[in-house]
UniProtKB/TrEMBL annotation:
The gene is glgC_2. Keywords: Glycogen biosynthesis, Nucleotidyltransferase, Transferase. This is Glucose-1-phosphate adenylyltransferase subunit GlgD. One of its GO terms (biological process) is glycogen biosynthetic process. Belongs to the bacterial/plant glucose-1-phosphate adenylyltransferase family. One of its GO terms (molecular function) is glucose-1-phosphate adenylyltransferase activity. Residues 23-255 form the Nucleotidyl transferase domain.
Length: 373
């Protein structure tokens, strides 16, 4: 299997994620452009995974509120997708909400699929945070002669994490026999990553069939309905996975990165995670500052106490402030002697002098964008 085969895939990033449980952060932006891990956005991970596998032609299908997403991805330069031939294309969902209907929106843009020269398709969401080598999944798919290969992760914490995610029921040969939903009852589950590898002509056929019969308004539901007639097999991913489909999982995913092992698994030189670069000066720490076990992006001014936090760019934490177990997004100001615990402060929030804010443990209090207390 040569490199030319790996370039024979069309990447489709389907931003159909249901953000009902994280609306505090998605009211003015798509989930894909929500900041993550200090200096990244949610979409950076799937974009990087695709380009690291040699995929040169990627289409992003997004709903409304896409200004922040467009500003972030721009012409695709950070992912080496700024090119005359192929590169990065963005399609806005128009009449239909992709949470309930993505098939019609794919049908409206069939020319993109038909005129693309690639033979295979990788269909994926943005909210599955991981660093995956798609090349291994490609090799598995091409050798196995499957109609569709579905990626999944076997977990033993499904009673607490990955709630509302699809669950694959797999037989002893790895074939997907049915798909359920994780309601948090069982600890062990095969969590579907909603990443599908298939031939492009089959993908187009699924779109046509869904429109013709009216039975399926979601492309993944079309796949699930044909488990008896199509060879749908599973491919297991063994690395770190976080599904950002709720405020709880967003908070936990960021806090996970304070674990050195998980951080090294997600961010490593062999498969870098790329993002839009910002020309920021290094963060300044004064003699009064005290920082432990935290991720702090560039451009910050730290004068207070920071513990177990993820801090984005251009955050000002003033003298005497105490910030613990928090996620602070860009351009926030924490006033002198303020105390914050278990808080997610969205972009541009201002916490005045001596303010004391504490959220419930493991379920943070959210300060929405540009909050002024």
């Amino acid at each position: 299997m040569g490199v030319h085969i790996l370039k024979n895939y069309l990447g489709i990033i389907n931003l159909d994620e249901n953000d009902d449980k994280i609306t505090e952060l998605t009211r003015t932006r798509p989930l894909a452009s929500v900041p993550f891990a200090g200096r990244y956005r949610v979409i950076d991970f799937i974009l990087s995974n695709m380009t690291n596998a040699g995929i040169e032609n990627i289409g992003i299908f997004t709903k409304n509120k896409s200004r922040s997403l467009m500003d972030h991805i721009s012409n695709g330069r950070p992912w080496d997708l700024h090119r005359k031939r192929y590169g990065l294309r963005v399609f806005n969902f128009a009449d239909e909400d992709p949470v309930y209907d993505d098939v019609h929106n794919f049908a409206d843009n069939l020319e993109f699929f038909q005129y693309s020269k690639q033979e295979y398709v990788i269909l994926a969401p943005s909210y599955m945070i991981c660093n995956i080598d798609f090349r291994e999944a490609m090799k598995f798919h091409e050798k196995s002669n499957n109609d569709i290969t579905v990626l999944y992760k076997k977990v033993n914490n499904a009673d607490k994490s990955f709630i509302d995610c699809d669950v694959l029921n797999i037989n002893e040969y790895g074939r997907v026999v049915s798909v359920g939903e994780n309601i948090g009852y069982d600890k062990e589950a095969n969590i579907c990553m909603e990443m599908f590898l298939l031939r492009k002509d089959l993908f187009i056929e699924l779109i046509y069939d869904s429109i013709k019969t009216g039975r399926n308004r979601k492309i993944k539901k079309s796949i699930y309905r044909q488990l008896d007639t199509l060879r749908v097999y599973s491919y297991e991913f063994n690395g770190y996975l976080c599904c950002v489909n709720s405020l709880h999982s967003y908070y936990k995913g960021n806090m996970d990165l304070l674990n050195v092992r998980i951080n090294a698994e997600l961010f490593h030189d062999n498969a870098p995670i790329y993002t839009k670069s910002k020309d920021e000066s290094p963060t300044k720490y004064t003699k009064d500052s005290e920082v432990t076990n935290s991720i702090i992006a560039n451009g910050c001014y730290i004068e207070g106490h920071v513990e177990n936090c993820v801090i984005s760019r251009r955050v000002n934490i003033n003298k005497g402030a105490y910030v613990k177990d928090c996620i602070i997004l860009q351009n926030c100001i924490i006033g002198p002697n303020a105390k914050l615990m278990n808080i997610v402060a969205d972009k541009g929030s201002y916490i005045p002098k001596s303010q004391d804010l504490r959220g419930p443990e493991k379920f943070p209090l959210v300060l929405e964008k540009q909050s002024l207390l």
